[in-house]
Amino acid sequence: MEKAKPIIVLVDPDPKGYASGVYGQVMVLEPEAAAPKPLSDSDPVFEGSRITASENSFAQVELLDGSILKIDEMTQVDVMKASVDPVALDRAVDLSMLYGTLRVAVPQGFSEKSVFKVSTPAAVVGVRGTDFAVEYESENEAAVDVFEGEVGVGSDGAVQP
Known about the structure:
mainly beta; 14 strands; disordered C terminus
């Protein structure tokens, strides 16, 4: 019987953003960590991190592209991808929200190739430059509030505005 080869997963060691305005019990499960730990102001946030805000808790995360994530109480968000190329003005941000409410302010000025999306089990929201909130609490419903700009919403993939 042949011995199984180990699977190697490469995790980007560079932070993709930093936490601020953390209040209450907000936990982060970092890639390759065995257990979540409390998130504090100025803590780095990495691709693959899961951020969970408990009741009466919230946090803000500023990504390196200048986007601001406001994670409300009773919300869980996975930072699937968060890359930025300031020279090419290109970014690729992919967030997965498992439940709760997330408000996002996304700066303009990036290339047409840039992607910024928030996925829930019920919808995918694709953005260019805008300020919006996504709320997901049930299997078949997601609500999107747009405060400034435009977003595209779809069920199978982001619809470009």
